[in-house]
């Protein structure tokens, strides 16, 4: 009987072959009342469905027609970008060809604190890879990795990264992805998130003669541009011309590159050869310092010239206006 009533409700009549008995058959009034109620409800449901479908269609027309260009531009900005490619700075040499400044390829170590699960553990693993962390640096690193609102943090700059540490950081980042294979979801939830740390290529300036002629050679700023001395005076020649590349990234937290196309190759900077003679420069600086101390003077300066050409062979000042940073693994001159 239930089946018969469901058929009656859906189609308005009995849909089975056998007819109900006289006692089961409802009277005409009941039939008319329920048929009208069911038809009214069906009309309401159909109307609501029609409004819902019309709303979806209107939204699709709005997004894909009217606002298509706007959202296409937003997606393009999120997925691809035009980036500058730094050119390698030219060398600075003395008159005998000895290097006073040159650039090497290194990497910044970056992290995404917003997805770091355990800042203390992350800092400890990074310090083991660096192999030269002090207790103060470990504590500071853990504190910085705990800033959840930060997504792009430089953990250690390229100039403080020796080659063996770069290799260990790269291996650490790669091992995290492999460690997730074959583990349970519960175990994966306690493990470091792949992509929480990564390496960013960067050119680093080195000064092999350390303090010798530091005030003449100068130094570069954190962005790689010249800040003093020859580095700043001949910035356009030494810096070269930046290139451009088209980069497409995926949806991972740090945006891994899935496609890169070089739009314009970078042009390396020109090398500069000074008239300075490093050996004479060392002698001039040493003797000038000794003379200032012996005379108990506040300071002094000395210039050594070639009497036949007027070329400057050495230029010293004491006390030095620029010194090397003693705490850095790869020292850079600072004012």
Keywords:
elongated, 3 domains, alpha+beta, 335 residues, five-stranded mixed sheet, three-stranded antiparallel sheet, Penicillin-binding protein 2a (Domain 2)
Characterize the structure shown.
There is one protein chain. With 335 residues, this protein is an alpha+beta fold. The chain has 3 domains: 65 residues; 194 residues, Alpha-Beta Complex (Penicillin-binding protein 2a (Domain 2)); 57 residues, no CATH class. It has 11 helices and 12 strands. Strands 2, 3, 4, 5 and 8 form a 5-stranded mixed β-sheet that branches. Strands 1-6-7 form a 3-stranded antiparallel β-sheet. A hairpin with a 6-residue loop joins strand 9 and strand 10. It is elongated and about 135 Å long.
CATH hierarchy: architecture of the largest domain: Alpha-Beta Complex
Roughly how much helix do the residues carry, as a percent range? 40-55%
CATH topology descriptor of the largest domain: Penicillin-binding protein 2a (Domain 2)
Largest sheet: 5 strands, mixed
Number of discrete helical segments? 11
Average pLDDT, rounded to a whole number, is 81
The residue ranges in which pLDDT falls below 50 over 5 or more consecutive positions are 326-335
Total beta strand runs: 12
Our count of domains comes out at: 3
């Amino acid at each position: 009987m239930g089946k018969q009533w469901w058929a009656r409700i859906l189609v308005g009549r009995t849909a089975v072959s056998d007819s109900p008995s006289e006692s089961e058959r409802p009277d005409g009034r009941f039939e008319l009342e329920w048929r009208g109620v069911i038809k009214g409800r069906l009309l309401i449901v159909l109307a609501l469905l029609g409004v819902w479908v019309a709303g979806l269609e209107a939204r699709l027309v709005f997004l894909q027609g009217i606002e298509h260009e706007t959202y296409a531009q937003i997606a393009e900005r999120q997925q691809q970008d035009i980036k500058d490619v730094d050119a390698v700075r030219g060398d600075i040499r003395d008159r005998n060809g000895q290097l006073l400044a040159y650039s090497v390829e290194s990497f910044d170590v970056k992290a995404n604190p917003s997805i770091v699960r355990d800042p203390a553990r992350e800092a400890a693993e990074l310090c083991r890879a660096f192999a030269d962390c002090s207790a103060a640096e470990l504590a500071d690193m853990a504190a910085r990795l705990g800033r959840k609102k930060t997504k792009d943090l430089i953990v250690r700059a390229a100039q403080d990264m020796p080659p063996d540490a770069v290799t260990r950081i790269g291996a650490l980042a790669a091992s995290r992805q492999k460690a997730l294979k074959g583990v349970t979801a519960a175990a994966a939830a306690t493990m470091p998130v792949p992509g929480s740390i990564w390496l960013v290529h960067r050119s680093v300036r080195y000064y092999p003669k350390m303090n010798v002629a530091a005030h003449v050679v100068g130094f570069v700023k954190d962005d790689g541009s010249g800040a003093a001395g020859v580095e700043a005076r001949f910035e356009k020649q030494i810096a070269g011309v930046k290139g451009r590349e088209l980069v497409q990234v995926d949806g991972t937290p740090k945006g891994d590159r899935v496609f890169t196309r070089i739009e314009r190759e970078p042009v390396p900077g020109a090398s500069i050869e000074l008239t300075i003679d490093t050996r004479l420069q060392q002698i001039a600086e040493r003797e000038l310092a000794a003379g200032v101390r012996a005379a108990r003077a506040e300071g002094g300066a000395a210039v050594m010239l070639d009497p036949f050409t007027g070329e400057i062979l050495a230029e010293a000042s004491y006390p030095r206006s620029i010194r090397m940073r003693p705490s850095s693994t790869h020292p850079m001159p600072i004012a």
